[in-house]
Amino acid sequence: MTQRKGPLAGVRILEIGHFIAAPFAARVLADLGADILKIEPPGGDPVRTWGAAVDGHSVWWSQHGRNKRSICLNLKAPEGVAIVKRLVADCDALVENLRPGQLAKLGLGDDVLRAVRPDLVIAHVSGYGMSGPARDRAAFGVIGEAVGGLRYLTDHPPGKSDLPPVRTGVSIGDSIAGLYAALGIVSALLGRTRGNDGLTLDVALADAVLSLMEGMLPEYGRLGTVRRPTGSTIPTAAPSNAYPTKEGRWILIGGNSNNLFAKLCALIGRPELAQDPRFLDNRLRVQNMDELDEIIAGWTRRHTAGEALARLEEADIPSSSVYSVEDCVADPQFRYRGMVRDVDDPLIGPTLHAGIVPEVVEAPGEVAWTGPAVGAHTDEVLAAAGIDAAERERLRAAGVIG
Questions:
Q1: Local structure of residue 271 (DSSP, 8 states)
Q2: CB 58 within 8 A of CB 368
Q3: Sign of torsion, CA 217 218 219 223?
Q4: Which fold has domain 12-212+334-397?
Q5: N or C: which end of the chain has fewer CB atoms below 10 A?
Q6: In CATH, what is the architecture of 240-244+250-321?
Q7: Distance CA 261, CA 283 (A)
Q8: Could you read off the pLDDT of 84-93 as tens digits, one per residue?
Q9: What residue segments make up the domains of the chain, in order of their start?
Q10: 155: which DSSP letter?
Q11: What is the pTM for the complete model shown?
């Protein structure tokens, strides 16, 4: 294995995850230098079959599985469970997203794991959490997004459309839960240096999404207000919307501070609007949002997107076109910061990956390798754990490892 770089170099984490949430958490930590040992069943993580493929290999997997060492291991076999215990002895943390209680049914409950490694940090990621009446209900990220209130708010305003509430376009509930798990693991490892051994993290997809809902709960709790879908606007700031242009494209403009609003008014040739009683501050602008947006749209419709954006940038007003992936790839800022980078994947050939977030200036992470083949590191990892070649051959013949 190549020597890892990044602030988490030297930290070893066992991943018993599938699909998105726990693997996403592990990928974030791997990007920052952690040594991730990913346990995969025979056939591999099911996400390997998702999306477009080249020569039978998922293109998404190239990024989703990067910087991890893949171990193909049958956890339904007692000898597979025994191998996990041997690996745990040399790990700092474990992250998993099986159904609550499933790991214990396999013989790998928290008590068993900590009998091997007392200070092991264990992160459980599930739909509804490890406790409560919904604990055993099935859930994916989209369910967490619905239960957490996000899917309700990503709709058009009531009466504007009969289409179903739209989703964000990616599995944001899984990814947010994964980020919380990653943060929890790093926090627990820091706490371990201060004497807090064996911390357990319980991350629920529904909880993770609900925690993002800004003022939704306090507004309801104190005022009885039910926050409603607002389409492309937000109910707390104006102007902040998508506006049509001459050629039928959309651009985003955020001019919700008083200073920015005054500059925007001058730019569109309506400087008097900054002193209009309807628009004197953000609260009033929100109350009169429809009228204000129509005025601004009247200006954007007279210009192409390029013309409007050039003028907005010159006036230092936050603005953008709506980026497609082609725009992201061509963006010089993303390229300069390495957020769009060229990689050569042995399984699928040349492709693109997103960069490392956060960028740690003094100890940057890296894309050391792309998502590996199933079990690519089985022999390497098990040899380091003291399992010799003859024993590995026997285990492979018995279907315990792959």
A1: G
A2: no
A3: positive
A4: Rossmann fold (3.40.50)
A5: N
A6: 2-Layer Sandwich (3.30)
A7: 13
A8: 999 999 999 9
A9: 12-212+334-397, 240-244+250-321
A10: S
A11: 0.95
